[in-house]
Write a structure and sequence with these properties.
Shape: flat
Strand content: 5-15%
Oligomer: single chain
Number of strands: 2
Number of helices: 3
Structural class: mainly alpha
Largest sheet: 2 strands, antiparallel
Length: 104
């Protein structure tokens, strides 16, 4: 569990959103639930982020150098635009969910 809910400068930290904490329709966040109103914004192919935009290679270079600023920048650009000249990955649509898709 390196980095999960703990400070870890080698691999960084991450946080998970438990399914059990999802708010039901009309339920206020914080009232026996911790998140809700989730909606799909974009779906991109993970191979675009990992390989085409170079995230995998950059992560390997940044291992041990948290907070992984260059990797985070690649990831953010890939998800924020469809334009490859801006570092973006194309939206593959909501019906294209497979093991290599990233849903945001």
């Amino acid at each position: 569990k390196l980095g999960q809910c703990s400070n870890n400068t080698r691999v960084g930290s991450w946080y998970s959103i438990p399914a059990e904490g999802e708010c039901t329709d009309g339920q206020e966040i914080g009232a026996n639930c911790s998140w809700g109103n989730a909606r799909r914004v974009r779906t991109v192919n993970a191979t675009c982020i990992l390989h085409d935009r170079g995230l995998l290679e950059m992560c390997e270079k940044e291992i041990g150098h948290a907070p992984f600023a260059k990797s985070a920048e690649i990831f953010a650009k890939a998800l924020s635009s469809n334009d490859p000249t801006q570092g973006g990955c194309p939206d593959v649509g909501e019906n294209h969910l497979d093991l290599m898709s990233v849903l945001i």
